Structure formats: structure tokens, C-alpha cells
Sequence to fold (331 residues):
Amino acid sequence: MSQRKGKTIFSAVQPSGDITIGNYFGAVKNWTQLQSDFNCIFALADLHALTIRKDAEEFKQKTLEAYALLLACGIDLKKSLFFIQSQVNTHCQLAWMLACHTGFGELARMTQFKDKSNSHSGNVNCGLFSYPVLMLSDILLYRADFVPVGQDQKQHLELTRTVTERFNFLYGPTFTVPEPYIKSGAKIKSLKDPTKKMSKSDPDLNSRIELLDSPDEIVNKVKRAVTDSESHVKYGANKDGLNNLMTIYSCTTGKTFDEIEKEFDGKGYGEFKSAVAEALIEHLAPIQNRFSEIIKDKGYIEKCYKDSAEEALNISNETLNEVKKKIGFIL
Ligand code: TRP
Fold:
């Protein structure tokens, strides 16, 4: 990473599942654009992913692929830091210290915990419960000023601010109180139920397009995407499916909704869907090409994550030592 550029941004994504165009247009693309203006620190949150039981071999492979894919998407190690969370041991240490400053009741109120306890009722582990504490440790270790978050992580960020202020009050100013970074990307919905967000954990593969999908898969999934019984390509109320496809087309071509409506004036949904698929294939091709180059070169990937972890450890250790001193641990 080059020298610091002022304000720091921290964000992370879990390596579970394959990255979708929802993750890409909603978050990752935004990250790549922030790199020139901020001191950006990104992580693959593999510790967070462990809240759901994993097959070890598959987990390892997915983490490696996700790391390579995010590099292919444009995370630039000359500008940013991009590390694998479990390789930087300060995170778990700070998480324990902060867990001791976070209320049971505060965590029990988290809606994501409640939702996930319902959807994973067979494995409601303590990690699932204390997940936000690890997340706030990620953020505070790098003294991030801003955290780009989607709607689903907003409550966790509010908790981060509460615990940060509590710590600073008890021990004197220690941490930067992070703010949400609002300018978020496009919200891409499920192709099968466009009232829900596109999710990499949806059991229905046809509900999402993954960044590494082949052209045929893209064509088929877009063709099967839910629309409505009208036929005009026009953004409007109660047309979530079409609106979603228009959003995808806009993201991939840079065209506005007005321009899209004009382009498809008098044409039906079939023709529009073909154009959406075509645009997606074209947009994803350079990422897919870069990915196949990077993934072949295991030595390069290893050097990238090892160097990044080392630098992340140096930065975060400074914060951790200050915290230990303030708490009264013998250093
Ligand atoms: N919990 C986030 C998610 O599931 C990932 C994450 C981990 C994160 N640590 C973070 C996001 C810190 C922002 C800041 O998407």
C-alpha cells in the first residue's frame, strides 16, 4: 500500500459463496473507486464466515478464489491493503477485549442475529451472537473514519459507534468513532423474487448471477428472470422484476433509465432481456479474464496476501498495544 491518503476506509466481505453481481455493483465496484481518494483497507472476513459450518477443503478453496476474484475486480495493492482476516491475529484479541465492553442485551437486539438464529436454528453458536464484536474490532484496529455498509450492516455499525464511545469515555480518547459511508452502489435484487436482495446464499441458483458465470448461464438466468405481464420497458411501480433488469442494464452500460426506455421503445421484454444478458457478458469478460490469469499463479496470490497480512499486523498492533496499555495489561 502506498503512503496514507488522509481519511481511512475499512470494509470487508465474507468469502462464503460466490461473489454475485449484487455484491459487485452494490459494494466491490464502489470500493475500487474509493481507492484513489482514501486510505483503503479491505479484508476477506473468513473468521466471520465460520459462524456457518464449513467443509475445510472447500472453505480454503473458496477463500483463495474470493481473494483472487476481488483482485481481478480491481482492488489494487499499490493503493490499498487487502488481507485475509484470520491471518492477522490482532482481530481476535481485540474482539475479546471489546466483548467485555459490549452488553449481552445490546447483542441480543441485533436483527441479523435474530434472523440468522431462525434461519440456522440447528447451529446458533456463540460466534453468531458475538459476530458484531469481531466486526467492530476489524474497524477499530485500523482507526477507520468511514465504513461503506449496506442496509443489513447498519445496525452493526451503530453498535460499533456506541461501544467505541463507551471505550473512549472509560479509558480516554483511543479510537476514531467510525461513520457509515453513505454513497452506496446499486441495489441488485434476486432474479426470482425481485422484492428481496440478490443473495449468494439463496438456494436457488437462478436467483443470482455470479461473477464467474459463463455466457450461457448468464443468458439462461436472465431469460428466466421474473418480470410482469406488461411488455413496455418502462420503470414503474409494481414492476420490481423489470426495474431490477433495468438497474442491471444501467450498471453494465452506464445508460440512464430514460436512455434505456428510449432504446427499447416499441420493443418487448424478450429483446430487452437479450440485451441485458449481452451487456453483462461483455462487462464481466475482463474480470473473468483477469481472474483466470491470477488464479493460475498461486505464488503471486500468496505473496499478495502474506505481504498484506504483515502490513495489517503492523498497523493493527499499534492500536492493540495502546488498548492493552489503557486497560492495564502488563506489556
Ligand atoms: N459482516 C460483514 C458482512 O457479512 C463483513 C464484515 C466483517 C464487515 N467485518 C466488517 C463489513 C467490518 C464492514 C466492516 O457482509
Remarks:
- Residues 10-14, 45, 48, 135, 138-139, 147, 149, 153 surround tryptophan (CB under 6 Å).
- The chain is about 55% helix and 5% strand.
